[in-house]
Amino acid sequence: MLVLGIESSCDETAVALIEEPPGGGQPQLLSSIISTQIPLHRMYGGVIPELASRNHSANLPAVLQEALDKAGRSIHQVDVFASTAGPGLVAALLVGNTAAKALALTAGKPFVAVNHLEGHMLSPFITHSQGLIPHLSMVVSGGHSLLVDVQGPGKYTLLGRSVDDAAGEAFDKVAKMLDLPYPGGPEIDKLAEQGNPERFSLPRPMMHEAHLNFSFSGLKTAVLYLLPKLSPGGNPHDLPKQTLCDLCAGVRAAIVDVLIHKALRACKQTGHRILAVSGGVSCNQGLRRQLEKSCKQARIQLILPPNSLTTDNAAMIAFAGMLRAKAGDFSSLDTPVDPNLRLSGMQTRA
Ligand code: KG4
Ligand code: ZN
Fold it and tell me: What's the DSSP call for residue 46?
C-alpha cells in the first residue's frame, strides 16, 4: 500500500510518501519533504493565517512533485491520499485538504482525513521496528500537551492535558517576553545549553498534584515578574548574556521537570513500560537528554521520533492515514476541515 500524505495545518507545507511492502511488514518512508514558512512569519512574531494559506497554495505543487521524485513513484501508483483535517488554522488546512481530495477524486482512490494530533502521537513508530505497540504517549506541541494511553490504532484514552498553555506555547511566550525570534522554543533551547538551570528557581505548576493535567501559564507569569528585577525597566536586551542563558536554562528545566514527572507518573498509573514522546517540543535537547536518563532509571523503554519527524511533517500524516486505511476507516470527500477537530477513538478516563 502506497500512501501520500499532505500536511498544511500551520506554517509548514509538507508532502510524504510511505509504503507498506506487499504482504505487510515495516512500512518504508520513501520521502518526506517540508517547506517551512518560518522565516516569513518571523517578522510578525507569529503565524499569520492568511499568509500561511497563500504560501501553502504557492508551495504545494513543487513540494508534491519533489516528494514524488524523491520517492521514485508516480501519482498513479498512490493507493491512498491522506491529509490533515484539523486541528489547525482553517485557511491553511483547506489548502492541503482540498488538494488531497482533488488528487483522490481524479485518481479514483480513497481519501483519509487525519487528525494532526494522531499524526504526532504515532510519529515515534514510523521508523520503529516494533511497529505500533501499546504504550503511554506524551504529545508536546505548540498547541497541545497530552498524556494518552494508546492501546492500539484508534484506541486511545486521554489521561491528562494542559489546562492553559501548552508546553510549546509556554516556550514561545517566554521567548516573546525575552524578545527572541519566533518560534521561541528552539531559541530558548539553544541559549539554555550555555546556562545554569539552578540560578533561578522557577515554579513547576501542578507537578506534585496526583492528576495528570499540566499548567504552564504560572511559569510565564514568574518570568514576567522576574525580568524587572534583572534589568532596569525589564528590558530583555539589557540582560547580560549569561543571565539570559541562565534564565532560559531555568525555564527549560522547569518545563522538562513537569513533563517528565507527569509522564512517568502516567506510566506508573497505567502500568505501561513504554513511553513515546512526540510533537515539536520533543526535539528539545534538554528534554531528550533528561528523558533518556529518567526512563533508564525507571526502567521504561523510551521511543522518540527522529528530530526531522518531531515538528510538523507529512510523514506522520501518511503513516496515520495508512493505519486508518488498513482498518478500512476511509473518509468521504465532503469531510470538512475542523480547527478544533477531536480525535476519533479518543476516550476520556472515567
Ligand atoms: O508540533 P509542532 O511543530 O506544531 C504544532 O502542532 O503545534 O510544534 C511547534 C512547537 C512550537 O511551540 C516550538 O516553539 C516548539 O514546538 N519547539 C521547541 C523546540 N523546537 C520546536 N520547543 C522547545 N525546544 C525545541 N528545540
Ligand atoms: Zn504539530
Answer: S
Residue 46 Cα, ligand 1 centroid: separation in angstroms?
Answer: 12
The whole-model pTM stands at 0.96
Give, as residue ranges, everything with CB less than 5 Å from ion ligand 2. Answer: 141, 312
C-alpha distances out from residue 152 to 19, 41, 57, 59, 215, Å: 20, 37, 35, 35, 28
Q: For the segment 56-92, what is each residue's pLDDT rounded down to a tens digit?
A: 999 999 999 999 999 999 999 999 999 999 999 999 9
For the chain, the straight-line distance linking the first and the last C-alpha, in angstroms and rounded, comes to 37
Average pLDDT for residues 9-35, to the nearest whole number?
A: 95
Question: What's the gap in Å between 110 CA and the centre of ligand 1?
Answer: 31
In whole angstroms, what is the distance from residue 158 CA to residue 147 CA? Answer: 6
Find out whether 30 and 19 touch, Cβ atoms under 8 Å. yes
Confidence of residue 173 (pLDDT cuts 50, 70, 90): very high
The pLDDT, as a whole number, for residue 350 is 53
Pick from 61, 9, 109: which is nearest to 337 by CA?
A: 9
Ligand 1 atom closest to the Cα of residue 166 is: 12
Domains of the chain and any CATH numbers: 2-127+309-326 (3.30.420.40), 135-304 (3.30.420.40)
pLDDT at 144 over 60: yes
| Whole-number Å distance between alpha carbons of 235 and 232 | 7
Ligand 1 centre from 277 Cα, in Å?
13
132 Ramachandran zone, left/alpha/beta (phi>0; psi -120 to 50): beta
